[in-house]
Amino acid sequence: MNTNNTVRTILIPALLIAIGGCGKKEDAKAPANAAPPPPMVSVITVSPEQVTNISELPGRVEAVRTAEVRARVGGIVQKRYFNEGSEVRAGQPLYQLDPAPYMATFASARATVGQAEANVTRAEANLAQATTKLNRYRNLVESNAVSKQEFDDLSSAQKLATADVSAARAAVDTARATQETAKLNLSWATVSAPISGRIGRTLITEGALVTANDPNPLAIIQQLDPIYVTLSQSSVEMARLREVMGQSGKNGVKAKLTLVTEDGRPYPQGGQLLFSEAVVDPQSSSVILRAQFPNPQRTLLPGMYVRVRVEQGVRPGTITVPQQAVMRTVDGSLVMTVDAEGKVAPRPVKTEGAYGTHWIISSGLKAGDTVIVEGLQKVKPGAPVKALPWTAAGPSSAAAPPNASGAPAAGAATAPSAPASPAAAPAAAPNAAPTKK
Question: Under the phi-then-psi rule, with left for phi > 0, alpha for psi from -120 to 50, and beta for the rest, what region is 207?
Answer without folding.
Answer: left
